[in-house]
Amino acid sequence: MLKIGEVAKQADITVETLRFYQSEQLLIPKMTNQSGYRLYSAQDRQKLNFILHSKKVGFSLSEIKQLLSLRTDKDQHTCEEVKNYTGNKINEIESKIRDLQKMRLALSNLHDACCGGSESAKQCTILNSLDDPELFASANNKILG
C-alpha cells in the first residue's frame, strides 16, 4: 500500500489530480489509515494507469467513467461495445482535425496577406480583416463556411 504522494510521484501526476479523481468517483483508494492518509493498493495503481492511458488517447473523464464500468464488468459487455467507444472517439478526433486544418488555412491566408513591414499597423491586413466582417468573410467564407 502506498500513500497518495508516493502514487502521485510514481504516476508523474499531482496529489491534487489524485484527489480530483477521487472526488469524481474515478479512483477511490482501498483504504485510509488511522491518520487519515489515503492508501493505494496495486489494483488502485493499475486502475490509475488505465485512467491515465485513457486520457492520453483522448477520452474525457465522463467517457473514462463509462470505460471503467465496462472494465469492471467485462463479462457483461462485448468487445463490440468497447470498440464502439474507440470508433466514436476516432470520429470525434477526425472532426476536430478537420476543423483545426480549416482554422490553420484561414490563419495562413491572413498571415500571407500581411506585408510584415515596418510601417504603421493602421493598414495591417490581418488587423483589418479581423476587424471587418465583410473583408474577413470574403477571405475566409470558402474555408470556414
| Shape type | elongated
- Overall pLDDT metric: 91
How much of the sequence is in beta strands? under 5%
Order of helices and strands: EHHEEHHHHH
- Number of domains as seen in the coordinates: 2
Oligomer: single chain
Structural class: mainly alpha
Quote the distance from N terminus to C terminus. Answer: 55 Å
Tell how many strands the DSSP assignment holds: 3
H/I helix tally = 7
How would a crystallographer describe the biggest sheet?
3 strands, antiparallel
Uncertain runs: none
Strand order of the largest sheet: 1-3-2
Bin the helical content. Answer: 55-70%
Radius of gyration: 24 Å
Give a structural overview.
This protein has 145 residues and is mainly alpha-helical. The protein folds into 2 domains: 2-59, Multidrug-efflux Transporter Regulator, Chain: A, Domain 2, CATH 1.10.1660.10; 81-144. It contains 7 helices and 3 strands; from the N terminus they run βααββααααα. The chain has helices at 4-11, 15-23, 42-56, 61-72, 79-113, 125-131, 133-144, and strands spanning 2-3, 31-32, 38-40. The chain has a 3-stranded antiparallel sheet. The mean pLDDT is 91.
Compact description:
This protein is 68% helix and 5% strand. It is mainly α. The chain folds into 2 domains: 2-59, Multidrug-efflux Transporter Regulator, Chain: A, Domain 2, CATH 1.10.1660.10; 81-144.
Provide the descriptors you would attach to this structure in a database record:
145 residues, elongated, 3-stranded antiparallel sheet, 3 strands, Multidrug-efflux Transporter Regulator, Chain: A, Domain 2, mainly alpha, 2 domains
